[in-house]
Design brief:
Blueprint (H helix, E strand, L loop, with lengths): L2 E5 L3 H12 L3 E6 L5 H6 L3 E4 L7 H6 L2 E4 L14 H7 L3 E7 L10 E2 L11 H13 L5 E6 L1 E3 L5 H7 L4 E3 L7 E3 H13 L6 E4 L7 H12 L6 E3 L7 H6 L5 E2 L2 H7 L8 H19 L5
Parallel strand pairs: 1-2, 1-4, 2-3, 4-5, 5-7, 6-13, 7-11, 8-10, 9-12
Organism: Pseudogemmobacter faecipullorum
Pfam families: Epimerase (PF01370)
Keywords: NAD
Amino acid sequence: MKTLLSLGHGYTARLFARALIAQGWRVIGTTRDAVKVRALEAEGVEPLLWQPGAKPEAAIASATHILHSASPIDGHDPFMHLAPLLREAGPEWFGYLSTTGVYGDTGGAWVDEDSPLAPARGRSADRAAAEAAWLASGLPLHVFRLAGIYGPGRGPFARLRSGQAQRIVKQGQVFSRIYVEDIVRVLLASIARPDPGRIYNLCDDLPAGADEVLVAAAQMIGLPLPEALDFATAELSPMARSFYAECRRVRNDRIKAELGVVLQCPDYHAGLRAILAAEAADQLSENIPGV
């Protein structure tokens, strides 16, 4: 039986698991939060509580495919110590979710998978180190460098509705992004066409500024725009300010040419419409008894 072991079973992995379970797969997902165990079970995922003393040997032995989507913790990959066990088990496919942040700041220039890595210190540097370590692990690794992820439950609409959205304007600043369902499409395509050692950028076709996306979202739901705040003088947390520290445009030609992927949301306009459609579908199902 095709079995996915999902290491760090979060937002993207949950949607990926849903697609696989619909195809008859078994999915095992790790979580460090005991409260989430029942939620995973309700989604058809077999939870593996990742706490001190966890025994993953049986799950690893049964897994035909592995997805690793956990971030490094304090500079260390939380699952790297499993590499010998994973190698011994011999999975058919191993996917590692990384970030386009490994390219660093290019001043808005385009990057592709062959561009040199120049990550800033911190999270992106840790991701680059983890990529290199897993690529050298002897496993059938596929690296997926993700742009900013958005989708149902993760986008500008909730912030606008709550009045917490900040419209930060930084001249010339652009980001690449990827709709979460398109990540799932790429992962499924990679499993169908495995190519161990290959690296893929996951992003849409239209890099754009965060304020541009916020304006479009506000217009779609008829809410007033937040006041424009100049980045140089805006009061931002260090984490929020770091979000604007880099500017680059990311190419996605490889997922199209090699994996045959057709993006559901090739730009943020389509992505925002998809979020609204998903919200409407969820609201409808909540109002229908038995659904």
